């Protein structure tokens, strides 16, 4: 576990977020993702975009805390799914092989 994850968990626990509703936290993840989309769409500077990415990560760490998930395990599970994935880049978006249609 990285030090920042522990700091985030401590911060969240001190504020009672560890016992909060994970469905509400999921909405917070979506809100932060929306803010990242706005920053990218408006061409904001890289520092703001990095902060928005960090906000998403923080909300995900808190969601994992609420669900009693290990975020590293979540990342490993997702990576195991994509590591051998084949596909191609179309219009700047990676499309997995099974979704490729001419």
Description of the structure:
With 102 residues, the protein is mainly alpha-helical. The protein folds into two domains: 1-69, Helix Hairpins (Orthogonal Bundle), CATH 1.10.287.1080; 72-102, no CATH class. 65% of the residues lie in helices and 8% in strands. It is built from four helices and two strands. It has helices at 3-14, 22-41, 46-67, 71-82, and strands at residues 87-90, 93-96. The chain has a two-stranded antiparallel ribbon with strand order 1-2. The longest helix is centred in the middle third of the chain and has 22 residues, at 46-67.
Characterize this entry briefly.
Helices cover 65% and strands 8% of the residues. It has 102 residues and is mainly alpha-helical.
Number of helical regions? 4
Number of strands: 2
Give, in spatial order, the strands making up the sheet with the most strands: 1-2
CATH H-tier superfamily of the largest domain: MazG-like
Structural class by helix and strand composition: mainly alpha
Residue windows where pLDDT falls under 50 for at least 5 positions: none
β-strand percent reads: 5-15%
CATH architecture of the largest domain: Orthogonal Bundle
Under CATH, the topology of the largest domain is which? Helix Hairpins
Number of domains: 2
Query: What number is the mean pLDDT?
Result: 95
**Alpha-carbon distance between the two ends:** 43 Å
CATH secondary-structure class of the largest domain: Mainly Alpha
Sequence of secondary-structure elements? HHHHEE
**What is the molecular shape?**
globular
- Residue share in helix: 55-70%
Rg of Cα set = 16 Å
Oligomer kind: single chain
The biggest sheet, with number of strands, parallel, antiparallel or mixed sense and barrel status, is: 2 strands, antiparallel
């Amino acid at each position: 576990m990285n030090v920042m994850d522990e700091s985030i968990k401590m911060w969240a626990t001190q504020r009672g977020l560890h016992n909060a509703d994970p469905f509400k936290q999921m909405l917070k993840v979506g809100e932060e993702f929306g803010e990242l989309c706005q920053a990218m769409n408006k061409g904001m500077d890289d520092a703001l975009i990095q902060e928005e990415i960090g906000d998403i990560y923080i909300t995900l760490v808190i969601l994992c805390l609420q669900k009693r998930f290990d975020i590293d395990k979540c990342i490993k599970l997702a990576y195991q799914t994509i590591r051998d994935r084949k596909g191609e880049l179309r219009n700047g978006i990676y499309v997995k092989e099974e979704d490729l249609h001419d």
